Amino acid sequence: MKTAIDGLEFDYEHGSTMTFVTAIDPSKGLKVIPYQLRMLQENRIARLLSMTTEEVNGVRLLRFDYSGKRRFIQMLRTEPPEYKQFLELVYLLVKTLAECSEYMLNENGFVLHEEMIFVGQRVADFQLCYVPVEGRIMRSITEQLRCLIIKMLGTIQAPIDSRFMPVLAVISEEPYSLIVLKQLLQRIWLESDVDPVPGKREDQTFEKGEQQGWQVGYLFRSLKGKLKLTKAELPKESNLAGKHRGNNDFEVVSGKTEFLSVQEKAAQQITLSISRNGIVEKQAMIDERFMIGRSPRGVHYTDPSEGVSRVHCELVKGENGLEVKDLGSLNGTSLNGETLIPYKTYPFIFGDVLKYVRTEIRLVAEG
């Protein structure tokens, strides 16, 4: 199953290398920008995924290599960054976008989507997908960046310094300048190198217990009506969406926050039957995603069995129903006996059998 993002369709391939491919079809109004394509082919540009290309029947295929890397959003969920790591990541991300013109690239060529960002050993060692094409129907890069920063805020497990507040003020307006944002982040980054002074005033940093309340309160008071977040842009499993006011879920559409009732949440629930080591148990899938792995945190179901990767696979509620995806696991995942291509989505329906190592998962029929 292909993934549609910002006017392009991406398909994952798995051979001697791990790649995803997108087709640039002139009949669909898409056109490759020649000088940008040459720039990407002839230069190794920092923080961009390497790309190869070929032409088949008049259609240009662009292949991006992500071998040895993990999805950015996967790392955020399993290894939540400290504030300093988060600040470094945001600064380098904005710096990459703001300085792309040095390589004759355009900021709107980036696919700034969580599924298309990959990382190495550290979350700041990220690489982005750049598509040298015009004719895409997409949101502005500043809007994409704003939504991504807010998603990242929801994963931080440490206090957020109050000096970051001007950044939120800048991104609350549309459009905003990436250059101005980069300069602001650079100043905050340099100031953050100074170790906290004992006895610092309470209004300069937020204690951990206050962090999430500040995130939610500040964001929805200051950015209300400007962010226009949808459920897809603000996942329920993030700290911003489900870890306050008694763990109630809420939806955010055009700045309006609506809490879901117990009955509404129950209607959205999916039940899974998990058979492991001869024992069958049922697990409820309420959130948009259900991640499985050996990791004791960041996943919805921890499976300590030998051969299971720290983050192995996940089930996702997609527009067309439930989907399953292998997350680059070492020993792989299969669906009805077919090995899944890492990061490619496959439909998962009643009667299907999802298997990894010796564990099997099925959907439980209602009633």
Summarize the structure.
The protein has 367 residues and is of the alpha+beta class. The chain has helices spanning 34-42, 72-78, 83-98, 141-153, 165-171, 178-192, 208-222, 239-242, 262-267, and strands spanning 3-5, 8-14, 18-24, 31-32, 51-56, 59-65, 70-71, 110-111, 118-119, 126-127, 129-130, 133-134, 250-253, 256-259, 270-276, 279-285, 289-293, 301-302, 313-318, 321-326, 334-335, 338-339, 345-347, 354-356, 359-363.
Outline the fold blueprint.
Elements: E1 3-5, E2 8-14, E3 18-24, E4 31-32, H1 34-42, E5 51-56, E6 59-65, E7 70-71, H2 72-78, H3 83-98, E8 110-111, E9 118-119, E10 126-127, E11 129-130, E12 133-134, H4 141-153, H5 165-171, H6 178-192, H7 208-222, H8 239-242, E13 250-253, E14 256-259, H9 262-267, E15 270-276, E16 279-285, E17 289-293, E18 301-302, E19 313-318, E20 321-326, E21 334-335, E22 338-339, E23 345-347, E24 354-356, E25 359-363
Parallel strand pairs: 17-18
Antiparallel strand pairs: 1-2, 2-3, 3-6, 4-12, 5-6, 7-9, 8-11, 9-10, 13-14, 15-16, 15-25, 17-19, 19-20, 20-23, 21-22, 21-24, 24-25
Helix pairs in contact: 3-6
Structure description:
The chain contains 9 helices and 25 strands. Among the domains are: 3-65; 267-363, Tumour Suppressor Smad4 (Sandwich). With 367 residues, the protein is α+β, with helices and mostly antiparallel strands. The chain is globular. Helix 3 (83-98) packs antiparallel against helix 6 (178-192). 25% of the residues lie in helices and 27% in strands. The strands form 7 sheets. A 6-stranded antiparallel beta sheet has the order 16-15-25-24-21-22, with no helix packed on it. A hairpin with a 2-residue loop joins strand 5 and strand 6 (59-65). The chain has helices spanning 34-42, 72-78, 83-98, 141-153, 165-171, 178-192, 208-222, 239-242, 262-267; strands at residues 3-5, 8-14, 18-24, 31-32, 51-56, 59-65, 70-71, 110-111, 118-119, 126-127, 129-130, 133-134, 250-253, 256-259, 270-276, 279-285, 289-293, 301-302, 313-318, 321-326, 334-335, 338-339, 345-347, 354-356, 359-363.
